[in-house]
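Supplementary Note 3. Input sequence used for the single-chain structure prediction.
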Amino acid sequence: MQMVTIKQGDSPLILAQPHGGTYIPDNLMARLTPLGKGLNDTDWHISQLYDSLTADVTIVAAQYHRYIIDANRDPSGISLYPGQNTTTLCPLTDFDGKDLWQKGQTPSEDEIADRTAIYHQPYHQALQSEIDRVKAKHGYAILYDCHSIRSNIPFLFEGTLPVFSIGSNLGATCAPQIEQAVLDICKSARNYDHVINGRFKGGWTTRHYGQPKNHVHAIQMELAQRCYMSETPPWAYRSDISRQIRPHLKDILQQLKTIALS
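The predicted structure, written as discrete structure tokens, is reproduced below.
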């Protein structure tokens, strides 16, 4: 099983997809609770949603599931949202705060270190390599971090999440014109609400790689899953509603691909 897949493009734009994978080896699957085995917190169908929206983008996608280890968490284990409910580097609970691992089966510190080496590091080595390649070609790189999540998760946030949640860590991870370009398209998307730097301000990927002074820009998009799929098992992709959101996502990617940066 290939843990990380890479599709190279020639444009400055890179799509990161850390949470769309569903692979869990049998020995770890056997240790999960029945709830954990449902993989409820997957960014379901994220690759399908973004597929073929624009040509010549690079895509780096983790094929393993976030319950093994979360590729969008700081490998040191430090929380990006102090004081707020969140999940850890190797999650012990799901997004509803319920146990993922059977009694006595939670990963030890040594196991977490092993998972970091086997899964987390290769994903970020691939991402860094593609950033370096794209930057060498264009003089800069733009990383667009693709995410999705259920619209209502009381353990993590109050109320219903807007369809578009844009994260730039309060503008620190990208040039202002990148943030503004994404925001303008989301504002103009009829029947879809949006927020910028709300509950999701950008995960570790966005914050780690987003260094505008070094000509690497990063922005996160967290989509509420109601805009393209069913939010209950079996988590079906819905072409009837996804075809309405995809043109807006296409506009975002096209704009980021052609934006002028000095």
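The first helix runs from residue 26 to 29. The first strand starts at residue 4 and ends at 7.
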